[in-house]
Amino acid sequence: MSTSHWAWGPEPDPDELREMGRLTAAYTGIGDPAAWEEPVPFERVRLAPSRVPVPGELREFCSAEPYQRVTRTYGQAYRDLIRAYRGDFGNAPDLVARPRDEGEVERVLAWASAEGVAVVPRGGGTSVVGGVEARFDGPAVCLDLGRMRRVLEVDEVSRAALVEAGASGPEINGRLPGELRLRFFPQSYEFSTLGGWIATRAGGHYATLHTHIDDLVEAVRAITPAGVWESRRLPGSGAGPSPDRWLLGSEGALGVITRAWVRVQERPAFKVSVPVRFLSWEAAVAAVRDLAQSGLHPSNCRLLDAREAALASGGDGRHAVLIVGFESADHPVDAWSARALEITGGHGGEAGEAGGSPGGARQDREWKGTFTRMPYLRNAYPGLGLIAETFETAVTWDRFPALHEAVMGTFGERIAVSCRLAFAYPDGPAPYYTVLAPAIRGEEVAQWDDLKRRVSEVLLRHGATITHHHAVGRDHRPFYDRQRPEPFALALRAAKQALDPAGVLNPGVLV
Amino acid sequence: MSTSHWAWGPEPDPDELREMGRLTAAYTGIGDPAAWEEPVPFERVRLAPSRVPVPGELREFCSAEPYQRVTRTYGQAYRDLIRAYRGDFGNAPDLVARPRDEGEVERVLAWASAEGVAVVPRGGGTSVVGGVEARFDGPAVCLDLGRMRRVLEVDEVSRAALVEAGASGPEINGRLPGELRLRFFPQSYEFSTLGGWIATRAGGHYATLHTHIDDLVEAVRAITPAGVWESRRLPGSGAGPSPDRWLLGSEGALGVITRAWVRVQERPAFKVSVPVRFLSWEAAVAAVRDLAQSGLHPSNCRLLDAREAALASGGDGRHAVLIVGFESADHPVDAWSARALEITGGHGGEAGEAGGSPGGARQDREWKGTFTRMPYLRNAYPGLGLIAETFETAVTWDRFPALHEAVMGTFGERIAVSCRLAFAYPDGPAPYYTVLAPAIRGEEVAQWDDLKRRVSEVLLRHGATITHHHAVGRDHRPFYDRQRPEPFALALRAAKQALDPAGVLNPGVLV
């Protein structure tokens, strides 16, 4: 089915969407199903004519066709969703280029550099920070990597695979041989792509140890206006600053990532997952800290506060729920799990049934189902008049209590804030907050911008990062500029100038 | 005791040194104790007069005194050792600045930038790649961080410590409270410093997982001519390319690292270490690969080939020996160790006694003792007429057999080459080779350069890295230039130009 011009996935059925809205309102107590608003259909969207004719040398893979342009205008932030829902495509790219190989990527960059047309690289288009929106003056071409999606080579001895940047999660894992898998499951797994993950330092499903795609990358290849940037396949190296770490998080501003060698693993044969309930949030947080500092490296260590637990896994609304899981393709993980439950028990956690037995397995499955279904649920928000912002950060343990208190106290009673600890490091957690508020119809973008500004100020004031795994994009940019070291910004600007002298690569992102 | 002008540590006793030479010759069959050559004493070294008068504004902490200059001329490569032994200090820095705080570091950089004097930052001076030698035209000041060695702050909740760059391994661990330790033990531990480790991406003692200092760094602060580069303390972040990863491996070319927050841990209460013997090298390598891909994360997983095992731990000269160890401050590691021995047994490995019982403990202790004593043993090489090169690399598992065969076959019969796998990653090992050859007296530097060139060509040809944890310095530079992506080199040059417009920071290193 073809992609909707506004929704996550294909165009939703109108009746199902309304029904989802009713359920959401019942669950959250926010939004008004009686005042349901319909999306502006594709035929009625507002789209300016393309300012750039399709260049002859790119015409085989380049288009100015409205559907192409509209479906490449936005990412998936609520800020994007509401504008698309209302039919506002003012920042649509003038052209969409869909290269089939690196040669065609090079041709786009050469043409764009010569003509001064901005290039916005795009993978799955799931950015939630305005990273793929041509939110600047002047013409833009969207460089969609979606046709470069092959698994080119697999080294089963070293367990690594060479994958093209435009391959999505299911495509990568569907094309790896035997039991080999890329164990990386962000919430956007269905649509987001390897190139996008690398460009944004995306976070996967591992709660500890290999939290970001960074940890699974062996080598990267990117096309820059100054030439091909290809690092050597190496398991480790100490030869100067890591070239890969310069591209990881570069958000399309330094080059277009076209392929990468990634570390793959056998699919786990041993899994244990246990839900642990806590009446005290503080005790649950202390348990997560102990787990993160234990060296047990749980694959799952997600703590849902009482509100999230109630929504996500049928919790009772009073207990926080910690899901502790271990997985291995090599060995049973019972010793690991047993020690983890000793730790959580020491903090007053009540362990439920382990995965494999009915309660735990169901709870775990429900949580996972909810996790990957979440983006679809958001489709009902604009019609319902519910405004949503999810933001994530990371902070050291010593600063977390004050940060958490400040975040939870930032909003008034009509705004629901919930928290989960999605990732845990020895030196601090990565909390993920969900903010749900009643929308003022027509004012949603300004409302959202205000929410964003207020939470971002709290993050910076408490020594946290503006993002743990959602990238900077355009929405986080002012706060990122205050967070990063100024000499680093100088160096980054100089590096960009050397690689992209015409300044056409994703303008406004990072530098 | 004061540092020798040529040896590792204080000036060795001449009789003990000769005795060490006799033992080394007996063990290795290389070198001639009868033709023993004495070191040139400090009083007779060749040192040009300083070309730069001590500037008035730096005189409180800056000196042109010969002992200061001589003891800051070299690192600890064999190439350095032999020149120092012969009294050749032609590349001595003209001045030695020993700032007591960041303000004094800034004053050195401001003065040097204005006067066009090169600045060579120095920690413990244990570089084995010419990283701290003023091997260029024009005057140089050595910026010795040795007076900035405090532990400034400890966050026991997050388990992190703020440490000044000039602190050595024992100084850091001696100053951390209670059971907290920085678990990072390079062979140079006694003298090398935190700042040096970060600047060179040094490797510690963990064989898997946290192999480099990179993995233990939470935040870095550096003084650049363009200002203070200080990253935020964060357990994890996805906000753009990591600023810390730009400084890690920057080798003094982008700025002077003055302090860092590092992740510390409790001292392990549970340890198991088991020696496992293999008659077949290939089987031992396969066992290491399986261990590295098992997710068990052994803290020690060092494989010594038969020659290394014989020298280092009394092996029989026929068996390769793999030391497999686990450590934890939180939990017994028996389940981990038992599964590891199942894996090695599956490859035909015969497990010896585990640490705690006499055999294994002795073997493990002997290995560790040898490990930290090794640099002292090298003091006997110049007198004996033995030339030594140790080099390390990393390569993917699929390429390792061909690389190993090529390295072992590069030299003739009179040259002894041995190998250990020092670190193991899921996608490849980091082998460490020792080459011992009879010296042609007076020709050692040219001989060494030829050895280096030959092994480096083999590394590059087989897709390996020019260094896994010894940095690039000046000795690896031509090979590094061929290894790194050219657009990355462009970007690095531009970044350096932005941060160090006068080009005074460690010229010739990296760019």
From TrEMBL, chains A, B:
**Where in the numbering of this chain does the FAD-binding PCMH-type domain appear?**
89-267
What residues does substrate bind to? R378
Name the PROSITE patterns for this protein: FAD_PCMH
Keyword Flavoprotein: yes or no?
A: yes
Q: Record's Pfam families?
A: FAD-oxidase_C, FAD_binding_4
Q: Which InterPro entries match?
A: Alkyl-DHAP_Synthase, FAD-bd_oxidored_4_C, FAD-bd_PCMH, FAD-bd_PCMH-like_sf, FAD-bd_PCMH_sub2, FAD-linked_Oxase-like_C, Oxid_FAD_bind_N
Q: Name one GO biological process term.
A: lipid biosynthetic process
One MF annotation (Gene Ontology) recorded for this entry: alkylglycerone-phosphate synthase activity
Protein name per Swiss-Prot or TrEMBL: Alkyldihydroxyacetonephosphate synthase
Origin species: Nonomuraea cavernae
Q: Lineage of this protein's species?
A: Bacteria, Bacillati, Actinomycetota, Actinomycetes, Streptosporangiales
